[in-house]
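Help! Submission page says 'invalid entity' but I think these are all valid:
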Amino acid sequence: MPSVQDWINNPLGVVDGAFAQNNSGAEWEKKVVEYFKEKLKVNGAQSWVPSLNDVPLHYLKPNSLVKFRCMIQDMFDPEFFMGVYETVDSSTNSKVLRCGKYKDVTDCGQVDFNSRNAVTSERQTFYCVPIPGESQWVKENYACSSQARVVPSTSYTPNRHKRSYEEDDEMDTQAQQENKLNSGPPNVDSHRNVESKRLETEAPSQNNSPSRCSSNLDLNFPLPGEQGPACLVKVYEGWDGFKLNDMLEVFGILSVDPALSLMADDKEASSLLDPTESMETVEEQRAHSPPASLVPRIHMLYAQPLKHNNPLLPSAVSEDKGAFLSGVLSELTSVRSELLTYLTHIFLGDSLAAEYLILHLISSVYARRDVLPLGKFTLNVSGCPHSSPYTDQLYQIIQQLVPSSYQICMSLHNMNNQRMVPRKDYTANRLVSGTLQLASNTSLFLDETQLEQGQLDATGVRNITALGNLISWQKVDYDFNYHQMEFPCNINVLIVSEGRSLLPSDCQVHLRPALSPPNLEEYLKTVQLAQASSQLNKYRVYFTVARSLDYNISDQITKAVEEDFVEMRKDDPQSVSAEDLHRMLIVARLLSLSYGQTSLSRENWIKAKQMEMMRISRTQQQKCVNGNEP
Amino acid sequence: MSSPSSSARKRARSSNPPTPASEDPLSLSPRPREPSTGELQPMPTSPGTDMQSPAIQDTSLFSSPVARRSVPQSEVDMSSPLIYDTPSRGTPARQRPDLGSVRKAPQVDLNSEPPSGDATVASEQTAGQRLVIWGTDVNVGTCKEKFQRFLQRFIDPSSREDENACLDLNEPLYMQKLDEISVVGDPVLNVNCGHIQTFDADLYRQLICYPQEVIPTFDMAVNELFFDRYPDSVLEHQIQVRPYNALKTRNMRSLNPEDIDQLITISGMVIRTSQLIPEMQEAFFRCQVCAFSTRVEVDRGRIAEPAVCRNCNTTHSMALVHNRSVFSDKQMIKLQESPEDMPAGQTPHTTVVYAHNDLVDKVQPGDRVNITGIYRAAPMRVNPRQSQVKSVYKTHIDAIHFRKTDERRLHGLEEENEQKLFTEERVSMLKELAAKPDVYDRLSSALAPSIYEHEDIKKGILLQLFGGTRKDFSQTGRGNFRAEINILLCGDPGTSKSQLLQYVYNLVPRGQYTSGKGSSAVGLTAYVMKDPETRQLVLQTGALVLSDNGICCIDEFDKMSDSTRSVLHEVMEQQTLSIAKAGIICQLNARTSILAAANPVESQWNPKKTTIENIQLPHTLLSRFDLIFLMLDPQDEAYDRRLAHHLVSLYYQSEDQVEEEYLDMAVLKDYIAYARTYINPRLCEEASQALIEAYVDMRKIGSGRGMVSAYPRQLESLIRLAEAHAKVRFSDKVETIDVEEAKRLHREALKQSATDPRTGFVDISILTTGMSATARKRKEEVAQALKKLIQSKGKMPAMKYQQLFDDLRGQSEAAITKDMFDEALRALTDEDYLTVTGKTVRLL
């Protein structure tokens, strides 16, 4: 298709064409955006566009259309640029009107600054990073789906993809391992575990392929050890609609003009010329105009907000979404029971804990009443074995199920040294990221078994407070030095601990293993291996779909719940408080959703009550046991 | 470092205005009578200037100013209409780098060239005045005239600005200010753009659109006027007009390309200031062959170096002499959007501001300011050697006027006065709301709607939000009476105390939220820190000071260490904080209300214990809380049912449904802000009577059992609560109903918190002495029994301690512990009935 060629490889041609066509009006801008939107609507058209996420930058053609799946990490100040300008050809002295939109640098010729026809326009720059904590399977799936359909492109495209895989050895081995994992030789798998663990724990030391980034330049990723390109996305319209930490899929024109980098190198020379420029500190320069080879610019044509980053679900624009959903919903219950069995095995035969984990994984803040976030369900799994790598393995299992996740080992060292809360750096004029700057619905895995006795310093206390606030109010107070700014978030926090966690939680489940396999590691591995990848994919789809369902309670059930509450209080007012009712209602909600039911039924309410009962009696027993211990 | 020009300026400031007679031609003092002021006094250290300065002095003193070539050149180009042809022989003009290169603007005759845009405006003018500055519709003559008329005639009788405090409001405002300038000698005239707009809208439009041209014209006008009126006065330099409050006040977010080169006022917070940058205004060149010197003005950051010496025609012989060039001060300031102006979920924007000359160092990082200035944009070049241009402009603001918005806090005035200006509709809406009979209930139910019931607590917090009236008794020696109401919430975990606190914290403009567990005394008060950059000692304020005029929410009050809590004593009564550390001794205002939440000692409320035992806080601190609320489970079926309904509805109602039911948070905020600002209720006669009665009643309750139970502090609390309730009604008078409600609330809070578990009576004495009346009664009974026992033993001067104890135990039917016995002995000792020495008890 030659047309595909055009709009993907030379989008600026389309832009300039539209500009030349109707010189006078401002409608051309709208037309351009419409044009690209139309093109992208075509079924599968989105996957023809190469993605910055899985194709290394140097394989991409400058000024071509690219897409980028990312999170807005920082918003820079708006900038003014020459929307329309006039150039003078020195030889013929003729003037030409040009369009400056979607470009960083003016084209050929001397610019006439005093031209009457010049139009100054405004655009906003976002600093975008790949979605923090994105699981490997998500990346692979996106990459695969894109590669599969890139075939119609030019001769170099498939070639490029091949090479990109060779280049990207990390991803490659991962893929291989995935294949082997399915076929099942355990020795490779252990290798995989070791490697991925190394990646997590020693993440700050960059052990990735040299092609990615040379790194004295801090790309400001929220999580240590993240990879992938960071991008400066230039937004031309409607930038007020975007919020910090939004997940986006950006379609735009890639700009890696070496001139941009040149400026950074030649700072001294240019500063002499322009007095205003010398006022910027070196740090600010580095943060705001990093070399384009490391931080490419994307001029946004169209952005699609992502509700989730699960590649297994059809994208929002495609038509077969409804069909897909109903398909999933029909087998939701069966998937749920399989999942429950799987998780029960993981929790060493404890099905109650497995139930709660399912509820936790589909929870999401769906509304806020004044300060109170509704729908959050922080789970504290206590009674986890301390010494064994059980918690690490648990995290890996969760990682395989959710699109994005992050593990924080709450060791003293980590708590005292990690930067969790993002902080504004006024010298560089940017928001220095922290590990709590996460996109919506990221699973945060807090490993409290790693915590030992000792002193928390000021940073440690701040971090603990930040975690506490995150759990209780689902917000993070970003540090702007002179004041704090509250950013609401929606993060699923799972705490694993030996005893009750020192952090607040909505619900604490004490793990009660039914079996104690002699070799825990070996056991968990075999359980994991028993799951086919198709099975895993079902689970992944399940979580995302269950989370997005609507929910309501009928009047009848409301009455019943009220009755129930009054009844429970009658027996023993001490045992049931408003807090407990809150929790029961959340459990009931999540339980219904987990069965794909969009309204509360009596059975589910009773089941929720029973689950709560069981859970509470378990914790109380645990208390007794502890109390008897000397 | 300071630039030569600034040092010269400083010298000028310190020197007396010299008269011609006293002026010594050889002195190094600046020559204020010399009109050529572009050349400022050279550096005294330079040998070259020393040699030259007398020569220059001579010529300038005795030659006519017109003859001097450098006169107009140093200031304004002759061809420009903006020559300062003022009669101010004595006062030098000064360049205004904040306005940029004005002098390059050519004047256009409208007759010869068609006007660019505003033909209609221009055509009204007479033919003689048709000369306008190129690119604008500004005619210098007309503009000047208009401005002078404005200065001479503008009267604003309703002015409420504090700057005009001592001026006569019925006289022309700005003439008085000129008068002030002649007396004080500070040659800056701040002009409120709002005044210009009401006086002459067209002039205002010109000022906003072409500040670069209009402001110099204003300068001219004001100087002509000034030196007409005060021909003898000598200023440091000519008066500069500084407009402020351009009505297009915007927040940073709304700046757009149309604002470039216009006069704007934006508000924000200073986040960074650079060091002082000397910027060359005029370069001084000297020929190395013949020592001929020449001056070249800097144009848009560039100096055109003369290639040929005009005197001896040698090429490339001119060398720049730095210390004779003229510099001006410049400072870069980074301004950040104030947090209030920002939409949620976005990061604040920043803007670069350049301050020039005496505006340098006027602001510090952290200051909230309104800046009036000209918005500029300059293209960025990728590389000087390339013709390619980065298609981006660098923008900045050249500051003309700073106005700190938080300055007033130092004077103890409410900031809201100026900040929160309500629109007419809003005010009438609020008043309408206030007129409703159930406004009090409405407001209290609008408070934290997600938290169920606890109506009285919400009412208490509502009153706290409004606060009492501030009274000043400093003349009579008692200082300020606090108007703030402090509240303590105490109750079982999970009774949504924290949620209430969070809500209040989010509601009030200057709220702080801390947790007792995580805060130290230092974090609450203030601490001294060494600034790493300037090495200055800086006072960093803590939560209490930051919440001045706001509410400080302290969660987990019981977890706070005693030393930290003791800090609160001063704050809660005197409303100040005294600091003495690292050589800084000061008293800071901390007029903050405290809303504290505490858990009972055993984390669960023990109904078998008194409040004091449950809370376990020092009485001194407890008595400083106006209201102490217990948040306990009512354990009532109907309540449970309502609660369940409320909670369930949270989980299925859509958000807008809930919105409809309650008052908007924004309305509540405005209502409170309005009441706090404009309503200052005073006690009326009846109300004072009612208060007196209430107080007497409270005392009576106590005196009935022989105890003083209410203290003046409680009376003050009552007054404050009554005042706050009057504020809720938007009433200027405190009436009986207010007192009634205050009494009710006070009793309600106390009824719960001071119920004696043994008698079920309300007992304020628990709060004041920490002991319930029954306990005291029992103590007395033991003492009486002991006295009887001793008396029954007849005349015995001394007794064995142990034996007496045993006797008493044997006699009494109730078990008597050793402690009780000791206490009884002590009570009798106090009565001077006996003394205890070692193991023997002696009668007296």
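Support: the input was valid. A stray whitespace character was the problem, and the output above is from the cleaned input. The radius of gyration of chain A is 27 Å.
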